[in-house]
Amino acid sequence: MYNTHSRIRFSPVKICSGAVGALVVVYIGLIAVVMSYAALTIEFSQSVRNDEATVASLESQYLSAVARISATDYASVGYVKPTVETFVPANSATALR
User: 2 pLDDT exceeds 90?
Assistant: First the structure.
């Protein structure tokens, strides 16, 4: 009397092939994560380069404006030295107290 219900339903080959299939899916998922991380890193570095170029352009404009202001002859523009210097009191009266 041989009972077929007492036999092992899953063979070791099926268990191993299922584990290999699951590991292949996990491996493909990890490759996708690494590739997306690399793409985001490249995109971020390009964004940083663009921002640095924008800052360099703005800094160049600022420095040329400062140079232009520094080189101005204020007497020829109509400015004169003050005759009397007046200082603002330390405790100024304001409407908001």
Answer: no
Domain range spanning residue 61? 30-70
What's the chain's length in residues?
A: 97
Residue with token string 């191993």: 16
Q: What's the CA dihedral at 72, 78, 84, 85 to 10 degrees?
A: -40
Q: Establish if 52 belongs to a structural domain.
A: yes
pLDDT digits (tens, 9 = 90+) for 31-75: 999 999 999 999 999 999 999 999 999 999 999 999 888 887 878
Give φ, ψ of 13 to 5 degrees: -65, -40
64 inside domain: yes
